[in-house]
Automatic annotation (TrEMBL):
Residues engaged in binding S-adenosyl-L-methionine: 76, 108, 127-132
Gene3D superfamilies for this protein: 3.40.1280.10
Family: Belongs to the RNA methyltransferase RlmH family.
First-tier enzyme category under EC: transferase
Entry annotated with the keyword Zinc: no
HAMAP family with a match to the protein in the record: 23SrRNA_methyltr_H
InterPro entries, per the entry: Alpha/beta_knot_MTases, RlmH-like, tRNA_m1G_MTases_N
Protein name (Swiss-Prot/TrEMBL): Ribosomal RNA large subunit methyltransferase H
Lineage of the species this protein comes from: Bacteria, Bacillati, Bacillota, Bacilli, Bacillales
Signal sequence, renumbered to the chain: none
Intracellular or extracellular location(s): Cytoplasm
Protein source organism: Bacillus solimangrovi
Keywords: Cytoplasm, Methyltransferase, rRNA processing, S-adenosyl-L-methionine, Transferase
Record PANTHER family: METHYLTRANSFERASE, RIBOSOMAL RNA LARGE SUBUNIT METHYLTRANSFERASE H
Length: 159
C-alpha cells in the first residue's frame, strides 16, 4: 500500500518532526508512506470572505496537482465522518482488498480545504469536533495509520 500524507505548510516544530519521523520509521514494514508538503499561501491576518476563498483555492490547486487519478483521497475536515481506530483499520483493510493501493490523506491549511479538493475527496474524515493545528494533525494521523496496521495484523498495541 502506498500512503501519502499531503499537507499545506511546512512543519517547523522540532518535537513534531521527531514524532512524525518516528511513526514514518514504524510504518516502513507495513506500507510506503510519503509526506508531501505544499506551500501555504501568504496572507494577512485579517481577510475578507472572498480573500479567504482565494487562499483556499490556491492552496487547493497545489494539493490537487500532487494527486494522481488512481488515488483514493481522504480529506481531514471537522465535518467529516468520525471513526474509531478499529473502524479506520477496517476501512484501510477494505481499500487494500478492493485494489485501492494508493491512498492520500489531505490536511488543509489554517483556512481549511477548497471546494475543489472536497469534490475530489472520496471520503471526509474527522478526528474530533475540536480544531487542531494542522501540523499536529500530521503526527496524530500517522499514529492512527500505524495503529490501524497493527490492528489489521493482530499485533499488540497499547490502548
Amino acid at each position: 500500500m502506498n500512503i501519502t500524507l499531503l499537507t499545506v505548510g511546512k512543519l517547523k516544530e522540532k518535537y513534531l518532526k521527531n514524532g512524525i519521523n518516528e511513526f514514518l520509521k514504524r510504518l516502513q514494514p507495513y506500507a510506503k508512506v510519503e509526506v508531501i508538503e505544499v506551500p501555504d499561501e501568504k496572507a494577512p491576518e485579517q481577510l475578507s470572505e472572498s480573500e479567504m476563498q482565494q487562499v483556499k483555492e490556491k492552496e487547493g490547486e497545489r494539493l490537487l496537482s500532487k494527486i494522481s487519478s488512481d488515488t483514493y483521497v481522504i480529506a481531514l475536515v471537522i465535518e467529516g465522518k468520525m471513526l474509531t481506530s478499529e473502524q479506520l483499520a477496517k476501512q484501510l483493510d477494505q481499500l487494500a482488498t478492493y485494489g485501492k493501493s494508493k491512498i492520500a490523506f489531505v490536511i488543509g491549511g489554517s483556512l481549511g480545504l477548497s471546494d475543489d479538493v472536497m469534490k475530489r475527496a472520496d471520503m471526509s474524515l474527522s478526528f474530533s469536533k475540536m480544531t487542531f493545528p494542522h501540523q499536529m494533525m500530521k503526527l496524530i494521523l500517522l499514529e492512527q495509520v500505524y495503529r490501524a496496521f497493527r490492528i489489521n495484523r493482530g499485533e499488540p498495541y497499547h490502548k
